[in-house]
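Chapter summary example: a protein plus zinc ion.
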Amino acid sequence: MLEAIARTFFGQLFIAWLLLVLGDFLSTFCYHVPEHVFGRLHLQTHHSAKKTFRHYAILTANLQVLLDGLLGALPYLLMAVALWSSSPIGVVGGLLFGQFHVWWRHVSALSWQTPKPITFLCQVLFITTPEQHWLHHQKTNTGFGDIFTFFDQPARAWMRFLRWLRLYRRYLPV
Ligand SMILES: [Zn+2]
Ligand SMILES: [Zn+2]
């Protein structure tokens, strides 16, 4: 019986992890990186200099900030719908962790430093720390993968390709 409970618990944990991985993947490759190359909304709202923790981590009444936050969160919500029948608890757990991570990855704006044991744990689990995410705020072509660090390298390659595409399109005869 214990084995069955453990299997159920790990099953739910897996669904939560899957929601976050697929959500972060879609958010990074379908919204975040293309928005950096072709758009202006995310750059204006999320990378504008010297904004507060509240601005970055909490959806303010500003319509543009709201839109950027909602577009970034949409893939997670789609995954939540897709995975709901597999495990509602896993889906709710994944969404709660995702929301917690939005707040946590912006605590650098409050001059907070991640304790070493937590940094080590994040390295093992490939989870983006506030310090790594802050690099993205300062230098927009690094530190991709809002939640998972393994999306950083492929996201940079995707960015190079999209930049090349933008340049190529500019010189195409119309
Ligand atoms: Zn951020
Ligand atoms: Zn960005």
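Key point: DSSP finds eight helices and no strands in the chain.
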